[in-house]
Design brief:
Blueprint lengths: L1 E2 L2 E6 L2 E9 L7 H8 L2 H36 L6 E4 L4 E7 L3 E6 L4 E6 L3 E4 L4 H4 L1
Antiparallel strand pairs: 1-2, 2-3, 4-5, 4-8, 5-6, 6-7
Amino acid sequence: MEEGNFVLVELAGLVLPGVLLPAPGVVLSAPSFLAAALPANYITFLPAVLMVGVFYLLLFRPNQRKQKQWQEMLNNLRIGDKITTTGGMRGTIVALRDDAIQLKLPPDGIKVEVVKSAIAAVTTNTPEEAK
């Protein structure tokens, strides 16, 4: 069915209301073609969908990557690694357990047990850093 420069879309003999496509031979620019191909209800939600996509890429994705690196750091802990806790204590790992570690704190050599989730960073000097 033809209405001016647009054709109503028919699917299996049914006319889909609100869905118009350009008639054969009619050339539309990209924004007007998008407006013609999508119903008005979808176009109003398009900015909201794009904003959700941008928020995901800018906020959630980097946080997931950071969480994955932190978990990998915890899985690679070894006896003898020097670490810093979220509370600011620095020490050397002397024992490892599933959910906790035992730290030896300088200068007196006091041993403290700390849960792994309290580890902020591994500060062991690698050979590359020593050069």
